[in-house]
Amino acid sequence: MSLPNCPKCQSEYTYQDGDLLICPECANEWKEWEVSQADAEQLIKDAHGTVLTDGDSVTVIKDLKVKGSSSVIKVGTKVKTIRLVPDASDGHNIDCKIDGFGQMKLKSEFVKKA
């Protein structure tokens, strides 16, 4: 019998206690039927499908033009301590500070978890 990954942190080390599923990494407790499709859609994933969380470090996977500037963020640029913005209407769901560029918003489809 295979238990599902934690819906909060995607840990694979979940275990069952009665009718509850428990994650030992983030202490999340849930019933398997409570995880809805809406919760799965709220997860922000990188270009390779890895779930991102606040505070992660990511690497840019393609050259990105900076709007309103002639600057380019090069492939391989490491961005530390990201903040996720799940309700971003324009698709820029990562808020971060990039050395040499300052405060910026990125799309998760152009980064990979470092």
TrEMBL record:
Domain Protein YjdM C-terminal: 44-114
Domain of life, per lineage: Bacteria
One Pfam family from the record: YjdM
Location of the Protein YjdM N-terminal domain: 2-30
Cited SUPFAM superfamilies: Prokaryotic SH3-related domain (SSF82057), Zinc beta-ribbon (SSF57783)
InterPro entries per record: YjdM (IPR004624), YjdM_C (IPR013988), YjdM_N (IPR013987)
Family of the protein in this entry: Belongs to the YjdM family.
Annotated protein name in UniProt: Alkylphosphonate utilization operon protein PhnA
